[in-house]
Design a protein that fits this description.
Blueprint lengths: L17 E5 L3 H15 L4 E5 L2 H8 L6 E5 L1 E2 L2 E2 H11 L4 E6 L4 H10 L3 E4 L5 H26 L9 H16 L5 E10 L1 H8 L1 H18 L5 E6 L2 E9 L2 H16 L10 E9 L6 H17 L5 E4 L4 H4 L5 H10 L2 E10 L5 E12 L2 E5 L1 H9 L3 H15 L7 E5 L2 H4 L4 H6 L8 E6 L8 H12 L3 E7 L16 E4 L1 H4 L6 H16 L3 E4 L5 H9 L4 E3 L9 H10 L1
Parallel strand pairs: 1-2, 1-3, 3-6, 6-7, 11-12, 14-16, 16-17, 17-18, 18-19, 19-20, 20-21
Antiparallel strand pairs: 4-5, 8-10, 8-11, 9-10, 13-14, 13-21, 14-15
Length: about 575
């Protein structure tokens, strides 16, 4: 029987507790039953089990508030059984009920987790009733405090502390040969930041609560669901038969999250990585690290899916996270660029392209670089990646003066001390480059940052604000800033033909941008209806799958010739 998850159980609080007696003497059980019937009345719920095996089987399907455990149970002692019961069923009180008196037995029972100790020779109905009620109250207090310390206040799920305890206990079960495989699933919501940025944290919190409820409903009562921070969850899948069952349960988790609607953003999706024990490590840290690496593999493979591993995979799929690893990846040829066209919406002629970093995993690819960009930023190595992309763009793409090449830069790169020196080396090639900075990460009230943007313009670069609209900024904030282009975030473009609110927003944005002399590009154009609506609203250029997917340079050049 796997461990009980008390998030799925009612805490003991019935007026008449439900009692299970575990004793190999049926006469003793009948005597105790009559005592309790006299003390608690006809509403008494009492069941007798004559062995450890029958008791564990009963507790696998029925809930009891109190277990009265005999000291001697054939091959196992009552103290050992109490230790098992309190570990697996923390919301049930255990009382040692024995014919053997002695301080050593009393101490052993308390250390095993018993809430009381009674000798058969001295017990009567009143003593038995008081002991049971006292034990139930103590468990209530213990479980109540555990909930405070071990629970996430937003969702009510286990937090990191509670997860660590559950994971330790689950591994102990396997070590004793009492359970099958353990699956450790790490779940990360796809694109959750966009929900927070556009709809606010209150809406985001409600989405997290709904996801938590969906996950609870997708697992068995004895599985564990935890929220370990932000939009990351961990699920412990106990007593699995084999890796095939692990994949089946993981797929169920993906489907459960997809049932959550983050209106108006649509269904929520999740990437899930599952590590197995035994197999993926000997410690909690190793199991979680392997599951985390598997989760990133799921993201690399397209998100909204699960990836299950039975052995450590972190080294096998790990993307570069430091400057040294970045240079090694460049030298090994695992980093490359792909290019997505930007098209004039009136004439549908090619007007530019965006250079996008791709990482080719040893297992396949290419994959979006977003899975490791955040790690490079934390390691302060992102400037090396950005400047490498910029150099490639200046060498290979500035072939025509009318073709703009968009290159993304991190604000960290913009403030890099060697930026000016690196950019001044080839001023002629700069005129075709448009530097893109994400709106919500650009503090234009920073004097140094504004000076760097002016420097870029003086060196011949154009400056664009990417994902405009999701950062909550007004156009007035940028009216006197060194910015040339606004790229409307795809969240305003998706379904714009059927969304009067987004049509109004984009129409106003185009009007105000033209007053300020700013160029407007729409991102994420995927349908003809979206293209026609944006064109009719006065948007000059667009980018998205409707015109072309990101593609390698040779494929892009072939596309450009045929367009």
């Amino acid at each position: 029987m796997p461990y009980e998850d008390i998030t799925t159980q009612d805490l003991p609080g019935d007026e008449v507790p439900r009692i299970l007696m575990i004793d190999d003497d049926p006469d003793d059980a009948e005597l105790v039953k009559e005592m309790l019937r006299g003390a608690l009345g006809p509403r008494l719920v009492f069941r007798w089990c004559g062995s450890e095996a029958s008791a564990l089987e009963t507790l696998g399907t029925d809930r009891y508030d109190v277990a009265l455990v005999d000291y001697r149970l054939g091959t196992i002692s009552g103290v050992d059984l109490i230790r098992t019961l309190t570990a697996r069923l923390p919301a049930m009180a255990a009382i040692l009920f024995t014919g053997r008196a002695g301080r050593d037995v009393d101490v052993a029972a308390m250390e095993a987790g018993a809430m009381g100790y009674l000798t058969k020779e001295s017990v009567d109905a009143d003593v038995l009733e008081r002991a049971i009620r006292y034990a139930v109250e103590r468990v209530r207090e213990r479980v109540g405090m555990a909930r405070i310390v071990r629970r996430d206040p937003l969702t009510g799920l286990y937090n990191r502390i509670g997860l660590a305890d559950r994971l330790r206990r689950a591994r102990e079960l396997i070590a004793r040969g009492e359970a099958g495989l353990l699956g450790v699933a790490v779940l990360d919501l796809d694109g959750f930041k966009a929900i927070n940025d556009r709809l606010g944290h209150a809406h985001g919190d409600q989405v997290l609560i709904n996801v938590a409820d969906a996950l609870r409903g997708a697992v068995r009562p004895y599985d564990t669901v935890a929220r370990t921070g932000g939009d990351e969850f961990v699920v412990l899948l106990e007593d699995l038969a084999d890796p095939v069952e692990a994949r089946s349960v993981a797929a169920r988790l993906v489907s459960a999250v997809a049932s959550v609607d983050a209106h108006p953003e649509g269904p929520v999706t999740v990437s899930v990585g599952v590590s197995l024990f035994p197999g993926c490590g000997d410690t909690d840290e190793q199991l979680l690290a392997a599951a985390d690496a598997a989760m990133y593999e799921a993201k690399l493979r397209g998100k909204n899916q699960a990836y299950v591993v039975g052995q450590p995979v972190a080294g096998r799929i790990r993307a570069p996270t430091t400057a040294q690893e970045l240079h090694e990846a460049i030298d090994a040829g695992t980093l490359d660029l792909e290019y997505q066209p930007q098209v004039d919406l009136e004439s549908q002629e090619l007007r530019g392209l965006e250079a996008l970093v791709r990482w080719r995993s040893p297992d396949g690819g290419p994959f979006d670089a977003s899975v490791f960009v955040a790690n490079l930023e934390r390691a302060e190595a992102i400037a090396e990646l950005d400047l490498w992309v910029l150099e490639i763009a200046r060498e290979k793409l500035c072939l025509h003066p009318d073709l703009q090449v968009a290159v993304n830069l991190s604000p960290q790169t913009l403030l890099h001390e060697e930026l000016a020196q690196r950019l001044e080396s080839r001023p002629v090639s700069n005129r075709c480059i448009e530097i893109e900075l994400t709106e919500r990460f650009v503090p234009l009230d920073s004097k140094m940052l504004t000076e760097r943007l002016h420097l870029l313009q003086n060196l011949g670069f154009r400056v664009a604000l990417d994902d405009f609209g999701v950062g909550g900024s007004s156009l007035a904030r940028f009216s006197k800033s060194p910015v040339d282009t606004l790229k409307i975030d795809q969240s305003f473009v998706a379904g714009i033909d059927a969304d009067p609110r987004n049509r109004s927003i984009v129409s106003s944005l185009v009007f105000l941008a033209e007053l300020e002399g700013l160029h407007v590009v729409a991102e994420g154009v995927e349908t003809e209806a979206e293209y026609r609506t944006l064109r009719d609203l006065g948007v000059r250029q667009g980018q998205g799958f409707y015109f072309g997917h990101p593609m390698p340079l040779d494929a892009f050049q072939a596309w450009a010739k045929s367009a």
